[in-house]
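Backbone-to-sequence.
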């Protein structure tokens, strides 16, 4: 996988016969107390010194990824639009900057149904963000959660559930990583002997969770399952010829994972 070009809000990569475009939706600043240890206990003065803070806060990028190939444009996650912080909601600008027409996107698939991943289906002006959408894929365990999101009511009848092993097309397969949310899923993209794991919220805070993957996140629905899913996906990512793309890794959030001592390290691409 190699980077072909990039701008402020996008980066375009080539992987075999596929093109992958990283899209910047923005970022969110969060208190470091969202990091959890030993089950569900926040850090205090024992916050590890490696944790990167900006004005005392964790800054989480919010990214989405477009996979172009097999005759389809598949968008994984959609950012927050205007449903959360005003520091988010750039996705449509990012697509425009990347030279991708909104009308080209026929499939949207969600890693899970949290605000910063699904609300971009509806643009800030209330219009459909992707007017030619044909398939809308939601983890089967989160269909009920999706159907409770009022702002997305027009899509409730259109969503299709997916489960572990589902093939979005010949090059994209679902690998479940339940824990952060009940249906949290990773999209495994393969081409020409290379693999890319578009892994959603497997890592929230890259400055510490590669080195200490046992550290969890306040918003993990099930702390223990989120921890073991992260460890399992990190081991999978650390195989040869594998790359990762993370919704909250520092934009563009694409890179490689290698084992280091009894944990991992990450190198951006
Ligand atoms: Zn998220």
């Amino acid at each position: 996988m190699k980077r072909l070009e990039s701008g402020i809000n996008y980066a375009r990569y080539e992987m075999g016969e596929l093109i992958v475009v990283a899209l910047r939706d923005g970022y969110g600043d969060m208190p470091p107390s969202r990091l959890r240890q030993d089950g569900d206990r926040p850090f205090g003065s024992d916050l590890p010194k490696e944790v990167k803070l900006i004005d005392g806060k964790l800054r989480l990028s919010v990214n989405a990824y477009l996979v172009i190939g097999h005759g389809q444009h598949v968008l994984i996650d959609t950012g927050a639009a205007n449903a959360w912080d005003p520091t988010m909601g750039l996705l449509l600008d990012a697509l425009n900057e990347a030279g991708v027409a909104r009308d080209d996107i026929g499939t949207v698939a969600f890693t899970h149904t949290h605000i910063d991943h699904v609300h971009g289906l509806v643009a800030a002006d209330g219009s459909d963000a992707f007017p030619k959408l044909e398939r809308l894929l939601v983890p089967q365990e989160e269909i009920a959660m999706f159907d409770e999101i009022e702002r997305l009511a027009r899509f409730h009848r259109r969503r299709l559930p997916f489960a572990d092993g589902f093939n979005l097309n010949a090059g994209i397969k679902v690998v479940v990583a339940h824990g952060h949310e009940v249906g949290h899923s990773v999209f495994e993209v393969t081409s020409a002997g290379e693999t890319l794991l578009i892994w959603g919220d497997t890592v929230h805070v890259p400055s510490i969770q590669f080195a200490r993957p046992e550290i969890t996140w306040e918003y993990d629905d099930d702390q223990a399952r989120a921890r073991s899913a992260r460890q399992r996906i990190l081991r999978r990512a650390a195989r040869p010829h594998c790359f990762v793309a993370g919704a909250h890794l520092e934009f563009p959030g694409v890179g490689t994972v290698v084992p280091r001592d009894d944990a991992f390290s990450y190198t951006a691409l």
